[in-house]
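Quick one:
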Amino acid sequence: MNINITDDDHQSALLPSSKKSEEIFISYQPWNRFRRRVWLTALFCAGAVLYAARTVMPVCIVSISHQYGWNKTDTGAVLSSFFWGYATTQVIGGYMADRFGAETMISGAVVGWSVLTLITPLIIQASSQSFVRSNAIICRVLVGCLQGFYYPSLSSLLSRRVLPADRAFSFSFASSGSHFGTMLTGIVGSLLLDYVGWAYSFYCIGILGMAWVGLIHYHLIDESHSLRLSNSKKDLTEEVGKEFPGIPIKVPWMKLFRAVPFWAVIFGQFCGTWTFFILLSWLPTYFQETFPEAKGWVFNVVPWAVSLPCQWFSGWLSDKMIVKGYSTTFVRKFIQSISCCGAGFFLFFMSYMSSYESALACMTTAIAFCAFHHSGISVNVQDIAPDYAGSVYGLVNTAGAIPGFVGVYIAGYLLESWRSWSVVFNMTSAVCLTGCIAFTMFGTGQRII
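Output:
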């Protein structure tokens, strides 16, 4: 086997001496072009499955609320409960991915949340009226816990397997599956909701997730495992030409915590996900209530269909600028500014949209700009902590998950109190622009640890 390490970050990595750790060494090598394309396609599909399971509740929530008599505060509690669990497993998920292998963590998490998604309607329908909301919340918390492993594991995997000049597009492409998954739920979920009932949306998405795991294990993970086991320490020593000491798995947190740019990433992630999660959770309700004649398969699909190529373009543009000689710091700040300023501007003008067509166009544009976030702050973790990307991204995304339960619940409370969508849109716009200012002033693309 040829081991050709061309990235300085990989060259400087300390490698373990035990047989178990030899497998970790092999998993740290960059993918070749073909292997990268195959894995990115698989990860794109994983992101689609993840967001299909995440968004099935927002798509179905109006029907469920009507069936069980929930008000806006109850609805906000159920929608935000996913993020209570999502915030708790980010750091441990990243650490376990760095330590034991991201591929295993991803596939295990997908199995767990797919099974839970599949049985959620059964649990809700079997509950007495007084326990329906509580049981729905418990199911969503557990789904959130399992999905919390995914993005830190993805960041860990790509930081080890993809060279720096290709990371922005790779991360953007892999994570853009989220838009496809949201579209999938918007189309299939809306049609099933109209014709056979909300429960079948959960069933279909749960089965889809388990099918993905079966395919990925058969075609990729088992093959990668065989590749690792076929290489002994002697092979590595002969081909690389030296012995390797142990990998440092202890993250230098104190050095990271003293770095102002790290806190800029934390705050920027918080503000960026505040915008995205409120739109993700409340968009179906906004259109169903404001324009009751509108078709769900349109407003649940169009914004995410437009976001998909926008996210790919942002990754391509980011990598292209770095290759052209622009500093990583400038590129990350430039892309993030496009994301926040564009989204904030169009969310502010959502308050002035009176027709369905103009509201859909404005919302679609705002969400399209949100897609640039994945080539800005989200990939910045791999710049500042390439050897600890899983663990650090876990901490960053814990901050990013807080708006999921705080922001989404606050939005529901404001809607119940003020009966105005303008209040929600203006608040979200202000938060988005504040995060942009902080990251632009204090962020960096240079390695910190």
